[in-house]
């Protein structure tokens, strides 16, 4: 797969361990790292995006949500919709112990 300006910028996301770029139909256009060729993850993320779009509230239904975060103890998925594409970045989640003052 050739490197485009978009995927080159995705490669520079801090603490990233993988990414997916999908079209609005859920087809994977680019992938890397732990998400490389991960069609199962792409399918699950598309289902979450579909549900989020259906649950969207507010006055402007024409404007879809911009970002969806799914946070686990060890890692997180940051999902962004832009220009009819869905960008998914899997990042490590630096867990910090609470500070007692």
UniProtKB/TrEMBL annotation:
It comes from the Eukaryota. The keyword Mitochondrion does not apply. GO terms for cellular component: lysosome; Ragulator complex. The keyword Ribosomal protein does not apply. It is found in: Lysosome. GO terms for biological process: cellular response to amino acid stimulus; positive regulation of TOR signaling. Keywords: Lysosome. Its main location: other. GO terms for molecular function: guanyl-nucleotide exchange factor activity. As part of the Ragulator complex it is involved in amino acid sensing and activation of mTORC1, a signaling complex promoting cell growth in response to growth factors, energy levels, and amino acids. Activated by amino acids through a mechanism involving the lysosomal V-ATPase, the Ragulator plays a dual role for the small GTPases Rag (RagA/RRAGA, RagB/RRAGB, RagC/RRAGC and/or RagD/RRAGD): it (1) acts as a guanine nucleotide exchange factor (GEF), activating the small GTPases Rag and (2) mediates recruitment of Rag GTPases to the lysosome membrane. Belongs to the LAMTOR4 family. This is Ragulator complex protein LAMTOR4. It comes from Branchiostoma belcheri (Amphioxus).
